[in-house]
Structures are given as structure tokens and as C-alpha cells.
Amino acid sequence: MPVIKSLYRAPLYFFNGHLQTIMPGLFREVSEVYYQRERIFTPDGDFLDLDWSKSKTATKILVILSHGLEGDAGRPYIKGMVKAMNQAGFDALAWNFRSCSGEPNKLLRSYHMGATEDLQLVVEYTLGTGNYQELYLVGFSMGGNITLNYLGKRPDQLPIEIKKAAVFSVPCHINSASRKMAQLENRIYMQRFLKSLRLKLAAKEPLMPVTMTLDNYHKLRTFPEFDERYTAPIHGFKDAHEYYTQCSSKQYLKNIKIPTLLVNAQNDPFLSPECFPIAEAEANPYFYLEMPKDGGHVGFVENYSKNQYYSDRRAVEFFTKGNMV
């Protein structure tokens, strides 16, 4: 029954989930992470940019990191985790979703909650180098949902080199999480996401079918409205409901067959009650659920002035300790 009692608490001056979300996102800085970028090409004629950071000691273990919505490998939560993994003696690869590396991708399609084929390509490419015997996966928010989908959809087809995974702040039930994001208290986050997404859509407007335009984009207020109009049709879904139903990772957690840790904070402003899969953790001995009271969304500050974050430490512990918890 791997529902883990969490010992994490945020510092007293980070007194709510919004503060624990916003402060690290805006003001955290991570030094001494030096990426080497590599571009690989996808079977459909597109590309992915991979950012590598090697440990100072030789290793046969690689950690692959997947960022969140409108993130990239340069975000502080990614760089902080990369640094922690390098210090633990692991190489790290932070891959950028399509259109997230600073250069628009070539196709109209981009990335979405269920785009496991790109993560699979990254995994296959890294194994093809012959440099690694073990892979660990880390994902944040949307990247965590993609990771859980990848692990749970076809567990018998996973490469045997994938040994463990740790994911944080995952909206594993997308439909209810999208309704939570539509609440007034989350308006500031929605405006920021929609503004960023519009810039990318504008760059791809010449690729859009005649039935799809940016007219009245300013009237969009929620993810269901955006996904109904753009994400679903661009990526082959009938509508937003079908997209959410097919791409929510919660339904696949029962199939996971490698030790996997999900850490979702109870005060995460992005997550609905359905995003805390207690029954799934109780039923699957490989799936560990930790629900700290604090953390916000991709926050998990331990010591702000010393740049210490629980998510970094927790993932390293999970990957290195034999008892898994």
C-alpha cells in the first residue's frame, strides 16, 4: 500500500500554495549547469532539441527530464533537478518539447498531454548511443503526465533499461484539473499561459487550415476553450473532451511496472481532488504516492536562501535508496 506519509513542510514565510508556486517560478536561479545542445529529428520530419549535462564522474546512468506546459530545459526547476542529478553522479538530459527550445518547430502540430511518442524517441535515441545501462525518468506537471502515460500505456514494451521514475505536480485527471484552472483564483496563471501559447500559434498561422484562425483569440479564458479550438483538432482529437479522456494518465497508473513516485502537493492551485490517485497507489505495489500539505505547483521550497528544494532531494533519494521510499 505505497501511499507515503510526507515529512516535507514549506518554510513558514511561504504560507500558501500560490506563494509556493510563484516565488520559485519567478525568482529561483540555478548556477553551474552547462548544457550541450543536440538536435535529433523525428520520423514525421520535425526535430527535438536535447540539452545534456554530464556528471563530473563517469556513469552509465542517465536521467531524462520532461518539463511542463510552456516550459523548457532552461527553467529553474529543470536546471535545479539537473544539478542535483549531476551531483549524485548521474548524467542528465533535459529535452525540449516541440516549439519549446527557442525555435518554432516545422509542423503545425506541437506537444500535448499525451505526446508519448516524442519521449519514446528520446529514450530510444539515448539507448542507441550505447553509453547508458540504466535510465531514470523525471517529469514535472505536463511532463509528468506524459511520463506516466509512457510508463502505463504499454508497460510490457518499455526498454528494460528504464528502472525508476519520479514525477511532480501532475494533473493526471485533465478534465477536472482544467476546471480547477478555470476558477477565478487561477486567472493570473491562465492569462500567462494563453498569452505564451498565442505567440506560438501566431508563428504557425500560415500552416493552419482555412477553418482555423486566431480571430477572437482574446475571448478565450480557459484551457477547455483553447484545447477545443486548437489542441484537439491540430493533434487528431475529435474535441477537448476526447483529448482529456484519452490523455489523462490516471487511468494507466494501474499498469505501471517499475518503481514510480508521484509527489502532488495538497495546496497545489492547479490540481483537483481527482489528481490525487490514492486508490491507484494502494492497488499497485510499484506506484508510490506522496501528498505533502505544502509545495504549491512545481514549488517544494525547503530553504529559499540556500536554493534547496524538496523535489530535487526527493528524486535523488528515490533513485538511490534501495527501499524506494
From TrEMBL:
Keyword Hydrolase attributed: yes
InterPro entries: AB_hydrolase_4_CS (IPR000952), AB_hydrolase_4_sf (IPR050960), AB_hydrolase_fold (IPR029058), ABHD4 (IPR012020), Hydrolase_4 (IPR022742)
Any one GO MF annotation of this record: short-chain carboxylesterase activity
Gene3D superfamilies: alpha/beta hydrolase
Keyword Hydrolase: yes
UniProt domain Serine aminopeptidase S33: residue ranges: 59-273
Active site: S141 (charge relay system), D268 (charge relay system), H297 (charge relay system)
Protein family per UniProt: Belongs to the AB hydrolase superfamily. AB hydrolase 4 family.
Protein name: Abhydrolase domain-containing protein
Organism: Adhaeribacter pallidiroseus
